[in-house]
Write a structure and sequence with these properties.
heterodimer; A: about 90 residues; alpha+beta; Histidine-containing Protein, Chain: A; four-stranded antiparallel β-sheet; 3 helices; about 30% strand; globular; B: about 650 residues; Gyrase A, domain 2; 4 domains; seven-stranded antiparallel β-sheet; flat
Amino acid sequence: MKQFTYAITDPIGIHARPAGMLAQLAKSFADSAVTLTKGDQTVKATQLMKLMNLGVKAGDEVTIGVEGGDEDAAIAALEAFFKENL
Amino acid sequence: MALDYRKCAEEIASLIGGGENVVSAAHCATRLRLVIADNDKVQTEKLEEVEGVQGLFESNGQLQLIIGTGTVNKVYDEFLAVTGASAATKEDVKAAAASQMPIWKKMLKSLGDVFVPILPAIVASGLMMGLVEFLGKAIPAFNDSAWFQFLDTVSNTAFTFLPALVAISAARVFGGNLFLGAVIGMLMIHPGLVNAWNIADGYDTWALFGSLKIFGWQVFSIPAHGYQGHVIPVIIAVWLMSQLEKWLHKHVPETFDLFVVPLTTVLCTAFITLTIIGPVFALVETWILAFAKWLITVGYGVGAFLMGAIYPVTVVFGLHHMYNIIEAGMLGETGLNIWMPVASAANFAQFGACLAVAVKTHKQKTRAVALPSSLSASLGITEPAIFGINFRFMKPFVCGMIGGAVGAFFASIYGTLTGNTLGATAYGVTGIPGFLTINHPLVYTVELLIAAGVAFALTFVVWKEDAPSKKEKKAAEEMAAQAPQTEAPIITCEAGSINAPVKGSAVNYTEIPDPTFASGILGTGVGINPVGETVFAPYDGTISSVADSKHAIGITGAGEMELLIHVGVDTVEMNGDGFECLVQTGDEVKAGQPLLKFDRAKIAAAGHPDMVVVLLTNADDYESVEIHPEAEQEGDAVAAAAEAPALA
């Protein structure tokens, strides 16, 4: 299990498009389960609707967790994704 | 010991750097949620020691203080007062709108609000009373039976104690304590006071300040009689009580609240009610009674006409119970009660007006009240009809007044012309039971028919169901015009089929003018160039998400279908402006139900495409997903037509 915490800087937060991109990225690591936690809610990053439902906005802190065979690669890719897009 | 909310709020305020350091304040069931400008000024450790604060933590940029259920709202109120922060809620806006109403409308609304909850009681009593009185007159032997005694007692209970019922309901409407309200209502019919209907037999006066007089008015003396059957003085008294109570609650420290507030409230209200409100009304009533007694003797039908018109007004004030004095007087002098036909015309006209409402209304709820109320009115007990329907809507009441006037005028003029004066040989019943005591049943029949007929016809023409329902109808029509076709689905998969959520012309998702949507990352589906401005539920399901910016809705349907309906491209940047969401997360919706409204002009003004993106986000979970953009193509011509004026 690897994880990192990220404070969202994108003013709009995780809306439809970044959620879709995140979900797709999460799906690409077939051997690992990617989760996203905001407050006391944790969702699978592959579930687009649930991601959007979190209503993550600028200033929110989210924790991304990865567990599975390719978790090292996944966590690196996800960190890069968040820094670039969110 | 109860928590001193004020102290708690003040301590919190001082430990977070004062009111100027608060960006916003809100509360949930247990926590006070504060957004702080400068977190360095917050003395976290000391905050935890404040009495009433059970814990605190920071989350989502909020400082959250755990205070507890039932307490947090009070601390919150005090906190707002201490810091000067303001909380504008939807309710505030609504209340502000209500305060814009003209005063007479507000009063009428209050009266309606007071009466509607107690209608079952007075409808039951009214019907029973009418029937019992009818039987009593029809079968003289019944009058002496145990059954009559029993039924009479049961049926008049609600009317005997009407002020208590009204007071409780009024306390609820005006935000006072229900039980204190009940005390005020019951005080006005206290058995220790002479019954209002026996005032003629005399009553004591309690001179609280001896014989002190100002301009001939004996200062604060209490006429020791009750206010049975009264409505308006009770409502005024309870309104006063509620204001007083609320004011005291605000200004008396919590520790002394139970000692001080109820006692002061009841005592002050009782004092004012029995020395001023009650007597003023009693005085006005005496005048009206004297006036009515004189008016009825005015010839050529004029007196009857006027009395027939104002009779229901006197019912509103509870005066009609005293007309027995007039009737008894007439019977004693001439052996003929000419008051009764006038009262009957007035009552029967209210029946007609109420019946017209029952026939014309489209609302099941209104009809359910109007039908039994009108029946009760036909038996001579008009309170349910007047307070439950006619007076609330006002127009039927006025139509009833006109009907009563015309009916009474006919009877009077007929008597003048033919010498056959219509009258009763007893008193106490009107309407249909009146047939048992009337001297010319045929003339009486015509009188009642005229009264009810005029009232019915006028009401039927003049009265219209509330204006909002018209608006609703118009809105519904507009909504229907915007509805997409539902014959053929635009997306199908093995879990079910999905209708177009918006009217317009659909394209394959790959043609959506946005690379992310077009790439299929978010799912498979269609884009619709809308002609309507309303999104409808594409299937029965549950709203799984509503974007804060109100431009996108997620809806879960059968077989875990997750549909995203995203209005416009990049419209998240509009922050909700131009969008109105009609549902909330967790709502169950039915196919075809309106979910969201959007303003195409505003989307265009913001420089975004207004294409409605409809994507099955978990399309990967299904084996066969088919999209049919050709199914929703009705809008093209309409779209061109609709856009043309927008360009001009």
